[in-house]
Amino acid sequence: MCPHPFPLPKGEGITLPWGAEMHRCLAPLLSNGPAMQDTYVVSFNAPEIASAAQPGQFVMIKCGSGHQPLWRRPLSLHRVNRETGEVALLYALAGQGTRWLSSRRPGETVDVLGPLGHGFELPAERKSLLLVAGGRGIAPLAFLAEEALAQGCPVTLLHGAASASCLSDHATLPDGVRVVEATEDGSRGENGLATQVLPRLLPGKDLVYACGPMGMYRAMASLGLQVPVQVLVETPMACGFGGCYGCAVRTVHGIRLACKDGPCFRLDELMW
Ligand SMILES: Cc1cc2nc3c(=O)[nH]c(=O)nc-3n(C[C@H](O)[C@H](O)[C@H](O)COP(=O)(O)OP(=O)(O)OC[C@H]3O[C@@H](n4cnc5c(N)ncnc54)[C@H](O)[C@@H]3O)c2cc1C
Ligand code: FES
Q1: Which residues line ligand 1 (CB under 6 A)?
Q2: What per-residue confidence (pLDDT) applies to 9?
Q3: Which 8-state DSSP code applies to residue 271?
């Protein structure tokens, strides 16, 4: 008997009521190890998810055996290789589920559902992009950077964190990204919050994409940026595909679900 509250078929695609297709994969784990302080990168083979994946989308991953923890955990797609079917996730050790995930070893399988949600909209033509990551918010921006670079868009990534120990060596970023770092204690890169550095990097950029805490988005909104800004909203999620209504977000259009209508929203759609 499937130990999960939603017994989902393995392998074949599951079409959601709004037309999106997700897959449940028992994916062989390829690697799993630390990337920066209390943060790991796990990679696994999931060709069905890789072939349909878009930057900004996420997977729901079963992080335990039996019923503990009951719900899958949402993690963003960090790197995707559509040719090999390899998918990588970058995750902070937050609690029970992510600690369990960090103990998995190559050769074991992980139970993954995805790709889920509406990801970032990439420009149809060549534009200059500024990506803003708050801490582990760098996870989905690596995949976005790779796709944008492949389309010929120059990419600058501003990575803000509390201190140097919370920044990686950016080894998992694609070649060609210009990286600017900012730390709140000044231990590496620019001294200050990413949102304080952002205005200096904005001239010449056409579009801004961000992933980080809501406080960072609120600060960005108060800057009154004159370019379109897309952000990923990471509310707690139980089901990940529109079934539990646990991920409600207040927007100017009314209540929206982060897992189904997002997690990508325009910054000016969000209500504080
Ligand atoms: C769409 C989406 C994408 C995400 N992508 C990533 C990612 O790429 N990398 C990553 O490290 N994390 C990501 N997260 C957050 C991640 O899902 C949580 O950290 C994880 O579920 C915690 O599970 P846990 O069992 O380890 O901790 P739990 O024991 O469930 O929780 C530990 C602590 O983390 C807090 N927490 C739980 N969920 C969230 C959340 N969504 N945001 C902030 N705090 C939370 C809890 O309140 C608690 O204080 C994402 C969340 C969403 C909704
Ligand atoms: S997480 Fe269940 S509706 Fe969004």
Answers
A1: 58, 63, 69, 73-76, 89-92, 94-98, 136, 139, 234-237, 263
A2: 61
A3: -
pLDDT in tens, 214-259: 999 999 999 999 999 999 999 999 999 999 999 999 999 999 999 9
Cα 222 to ligand 1 centre (Å): 26
Ligand 1 centre and the CA of 91: distance in Å?
Answer: 9
Structure tokens at 165: 């120990």
Q: What is the Cα–Cα distance from 1 to 15, expressed in whole angstroms?
A: 23
Average pLDDT of the chain is 92
Q: Could you count the other beta carbons within 10 Å of the beta carbon of residue 268?
A: 11
Tell which CATH classification among 2.60.120.620, 3.40.50.80, 3.20.20.70, 3.40.50.300 matches the domain 129-232. Answer: 3.40.50.80
Return the CATH fold of 13-116.
Answer: Elongation Factor Tu (Ef-tu); domain 3 (2.40.30)
CB of 238 shorter than 6 A to ligand 2 = yes
Q: Residue 101 carries which side chain, given as an amino acid letter?
A: L
Q: Is the CB of 16 under 6 A from ligand 2?
A: no
C-alpha to C-alpha distance for 183 and 161, rounded to whole angstroms: 5
Instruction: Report the DSSP pairing between strands 79-81 and 155-161.
Output: unpaired
Residue among 113, 232, 260 to mutate when testing ligand 2 (max atoms within 8 A of CB): 260
Q: How far apart are CA 208 and CA 129, in angstroms?
A: 6
Cβ of 239 less than 6 Å from ligand 2: yes
CATH 2.40.30.10 in the chain, residue ranges: 13-116
Distance in angstroms between the alpha carbons of the first and the last residue of the chain:
43
Taking the centre of ligand 2 as the mean of its atom positions, its distance from the CA of residue 88, in whole angstroms, is 23
Residue 152 C-alpha to ligand 1 middle, in angstroms?
33
